[in-house]
Amino acid sequence: MPVHNEKRLFEEIASGSERALRLLYDRYFNTLYNYVLKTLKDEGIAKEVVQDVFLKIWENRDSLANVDAPQAYIYAITRNKALDYFRRLVKDAQLADIVEESNLKSPHAADDRMNVSDLKGLILEALNKLSDQKQKVFKMSRYEDFSHDEIADQLNLSKSTIKNHLSETLRYLKEQLKLTSN
């Protein structure tokens, strides 16, 4: 698709045209899907990531008229959404490690081990006992995917304070989970 046609679609989307978004979706979905599928190796997740790309485009439609290279913009969002998925996997793996460590130290049978909803409840309960600042830092990092630098900027704290809060919070959560599993 020629760049001027893509720019025109972006301008129409910026004006609120759902039809233009649908045209963009129809033109790019298969290409982006195959691009993401090669990386993530999961059809369902690849579809979800690509849908998130178009949702992001719609949510940021006010700034689309200023985009000079629409195709590069679309691929950058796609790459970032795939990276976000990997980041969530890493965070989920860290959480799973905490649970597994807690479960391994538990003398109870396998059927007594924590399930995900129990774990979420325990984490929320433990987080509520922390200071407001530590809660906010943890939630921004783990649930909202902010980097340490972004959190530091938004909260007017140093990056080392953010790292300390996160490490103290994770240590505290591990301790709480160990206590609960005993």
UniProtKB/TrEMBL annotation:
What SUPFAM superfamilies does the database record attribute to this sequence? Sigma2 domain of RNA polymerase sigma factors, Sigma3 and sigma4 domains of RNA polymerase sigma factors
Task: Give the domain of life.
Answer: Bacteria
| Keyword Transferase part of the UniProt annotation | no
Q: Where is the RNA polymerase sigma-70 region domain?
A: 24-88
Going by the UniProt record, its keywords in alphabetical order are: Sigma factor, Transcription, Transcription regulation
Q: Which family does it belong to?
A: Belongs to the sigma-70 factor family. ECF subfamily.
Can you name this protein?
A: RNA polymerase sigma-70 factor
